[in-house]
Amino acid sequence: MILSANRNAQVPKSVGFYDVQAKEALHLVVSLGTFIVLDKYLKNAFSDHNIRFPSALFGMFFLFLLLSTLSFINSGAANKVEVFFSPANLFIQRWLPLFYVPSLVVAPLAVKGIPAIEGAKIGAILVGGWMGTLLVAGYTTVQVRKLVNTELLPVDPVPKAAPFTSTERFSWIFVMLLSFGIAVRYPTALGPVAVTAAPFLLAATVVGYLMGTSLPEKATNVFHPVLAIVLSAELGAYALGIATGKGFEATLGEYLTKSTGSPGAGDILNGFLGPVILSFAFSMYRQRKVGTGCNCYRQQHDLPPVLYL
């Protein structure tokens, strides 16, 4: 009887590794897709109403206010929203430098007609202004802290993105080599030449990032991963230009076309800038306790709120 009962009992099925991976991938696609859809909706709405304010920036503040309001009413609901977008936020955090480099990659085309003396003046102004901004910002921060005598609150731990693996590096190198061969042998395989070259130039950009982040920490202090990204993308454009006979400048011009009909690798990366800005709402939301602590101090000592903006 006991043996028969055990046979009829239902044995719970274990969740396999690939099941977990599939669920995580689906969660990432849905959460990141929500960011993309929201960004597109805001862009279209602002364009239809001729609103010149950046739509992604409005969306960021809206999400931050929504999270803050939900946290005040029901913290559990706010946590659920944060958990839902967590895969997308980790994805953006992991690949963030890639979304800012397209303009840097095509910088040689922008400065081509500028004389050397004028370029040196512009560089001196940029470097001097950057250093001056850092000094003024640092001095102002120190003086404001001394003035209000605030206590720095501990920051909530932020989940870190997973480091890149050797499998990812070799996979992207394989994609880069394969797409290079296709772009050289069949330059119109995907339609316009820029579209066919986009997979190779995109892979070259990603490979530069993966290699740059794999350097020792001391090396990254001198050779930042962003420099590795730019250098890898430009070397890829140079190699493709030589192989196709089009030259470096013509190939680099296909990196960022700013055309919806024939987008290049840079246009694909720029397409994520809106979702990136929207994701900053969650970073602001995680840091809200610092502002809460300052607000409590202001109320206790009857200080003007302008110091805490």
TrEMBL record:
How does this protein lie in the membrane? Multi-pass membrane protein
Q: Listed GO cellular component terms?
A: membrane
What protein is this chain from? LrgB-like protein
Major localization class: membrane
Kindly list the places in or outside the cell where this protein is found, as annotated in its UniProt entry: Membrane
Q: Which InterPro entries match?
A: CidB/LrgB (IPR007300)
Instruction: Cite the entry's keywords alphabetically.
Output: Membrane, Transmembrane, Transmembrane helix
